[in-house]
Each structure stands twice: as C-alpha cells, then as structure tokens.
Design goal:
The protein is mainly β and 119 residues long. The protein has no helices and 11 strands. It has strands spanning 2-7, 10-13, 18-26, 30-39, 44-51, 56-58, 66-71, 76-81, 90-99, 105-109, 113-118. The strands form 2 sheets. Strands 2, 4, 5, 6, 9, 10 and 11 form a 7-stranded mixed sheet that branches. A hairpin with a 4-residue loop joins strand 4 and strand 5.
Length: 119
C-alpha cells in the first residue's frame, strides 16, 4: 500500500504564507505525478500538480502566488503558498499517482490539512 501524510496547515492572516508538505511512503515503484486539491464547502477543486519531470501547472486563481516543488528521491512534495487570501481557506488534500510495481498502479489521497486565512 501507499500512504500520504500531509503537514503544514494552520491559521494565517491574509497576505501571509504557509508551506504544505506531502510525504508518500509504502510500496512505491514509481511516482508519476503529485497534486494538491482543496475543498471549501462545496466540491473539491484542483489547485496544482507537479510531474516526475518537474513540470507544474496551477489553477488560475493561485498562479503567481503558489509554487510546487518535489524531492523525487524522498517522494516528498511541497506547496509554498504566498500572498494568501481569505478565499484560499479550505481543507487541502494531497494526491499521488504512480506505480506500486511494474504492473500495478496507485492513486491515493492524504487525509487533508486545514488552511484558514483570516481577513
């Protein structure tokens, strides 16, 4: 099995910064992509993704403010969030996709970490 552990959420004032971390562990042959989603009251929204090659893409609302990075050797991913706004308040979920073995894939989610931005 593959597990994800997130950390770094909390309470911050508008304009402040937080860094979220997501650690993947377990039976991992290869990680293809890691991503962050968030959920305020309502549906879950894509935030950002980084591939094994380092390519990133972001939802328009966070471009220029959020930056993803990863340590491939450690299967560790970061989301640096700057210039936070009240509308960034949500539970942030880490998602990881890859291969457990040469033949078997995985697509797992973390437990979520709450980010609260006070205005």
């Amino acid at each position: 099995q593959v597990q994800l552990v997130e950390s770094g959420g909390g309470l911050v004032q508008a304009g402040g910064s937080l860094r979220l971390s997501c650690q993947a562990s377990g039976s991992i042959y290869r990680v293809d992509a890691m991503a962050w989603y968030r959920q305020a009251p309502g549906k879950r929204e894509f935030v950002a993704q980084i591939t094994s090659g380092g390519s990133t893409n972001y939802v328009d609302s966070v471009k220029g403010r959020f930056t993803m990075s990863r340590d491939n050797a450690k299967n560790l991913m970061y989301l640096q969030m700057n210039s936070l706004k009240a509308e960034d308040t949500a539970v942030y979920y880490c998602n990881c996709r890859g291969m457990r073995t040469f033949w078997n894939s995985f697509d797992v989610w973390g437990q979520g970490t709450l980010v609260t931005v006070s205005s």
